[in-house]
Amino acid sequence: MLLSPVQFFKNLPKKKCAACKKEMEEQADCYTNKCEKCSTVI
């Protein structure tokens, strides 16, 4: 059975930082995989 797109995205796991593994607050226009604390970008 196929899921609706809405159900698919609701079932995705929370995004986690690649460095410290803490859950990240996702932003619609953000593709980073590290949290602000671990990111080296200023």
Low-confidence stretches: none
The whole-angstrom Rg is 13 Å
The helix/strand series, from N terminus to C terminus, equals H
The structure class reads little secondary structure
Shape: elongated
Mean pLDDT: 85
Residues in helix, %: 10-25%
Q: How would a textbook summarize the main sheet?
A: none
Number of domains: 1
Number of extended strands: 0
Distance from N terminus to C terminus (CA atoms, Å) equals: 45 Å
β content, as a range?
under 5%
Can you count the helices?
Answer: 1
Provide a brief overview of the structure.
The chain has one helix spanning 5-10. With 42 residues, it is mostly loops.
What key attributes describe this structure?
42 residues, little secondary structure, 1 helix, YhfH-like protein, YhfH-like
Strand-helix topology:
Blueprint: H1 5-10
Give a description of the structure.
This is YhfH-like protein. The protein has 42 residues and is largely without helices or strands. It has one domain (1-41). The chain is 14% helix and 0% strand. The chain contains 1 helix and no strands. It is elongated. The model has no long low-confidence stretch (mean pLDDT 85).
